[in-house]
Design brief:
about 160 residues; mainly alpha; Globin-like; Globin-like_sf; Hemoglobin
């Protein structure tokens, strides 16, 4: 589908599609083993972790549903964080490295995209910390996949 002049693209389309998110997460997780705060968190990481997270975020941002079509779910993503005891220091390091990586791989730098992207990173990482706390149990229902949009700015300025 070609974008018309007044049609607002999804965040995934604006960012460059699944390939751009795959590049983002490949680069991010390639840097993690050398990061003093994050390396222990991801020690023993599944070699396909970057691929799964890229598919999840692409879908959340309005792209293809490859994550759910491959059997993934929001409950499964929550489950990956259970019992991990993530700290605020680790959360902040994750966000900081993700933003640096977004710049390195050329994710859009316009204020509207970055506001939505940072909003999602803050929301998602804070939920990950909450879900990683002692005593948190796996969801017993099937929470819907998150859907993230442009938010208050309303999309890219197309003027």
């Amino acid at each position: 589908m070609a974008l018309g002049e007044t049609e607002i693209p999804t965040l995934a389309a604006w960012a460059g599609g699944p390939e751009r998110f795959r590049a983002l997460f490949d680069a991010f997780y390639a840097a993690v083993p050398d990061h003093p705060v994050l390396a222990p968190v991801f020690a023993g990481m599944n070699p396909r972790h970057a691929e799964h997270v890229a598919a999840f975020v692409t879908e959340v941002f309005g792209g293809p549903k490859a994550y759910t079509e491959a059997g993934g779910s929001h409950a499964a993503m929550i489950g990956h964080h259970l019992g991990r005891h993530l700290t605020e220091e680790q959360r902040r390091a994750w966000v900081s490295l993700m933003l640096d990586t977004a710049d390195a791989v050329g994710l859009p730098a316009d204020p509207e995209f970055r506001a939505a992207f940072v909003g999602y990173l803050e929301w998602g990482t804070r939920l990950a910390v909450i879900n990683s706390a002692p005593g948190v149990e796996a969801p017993t229902d099937d929470p819907p996949m998150p859907v993230w949009g442009w938010g208050p700015p309303g999309g890219p300025w197309l003027g």
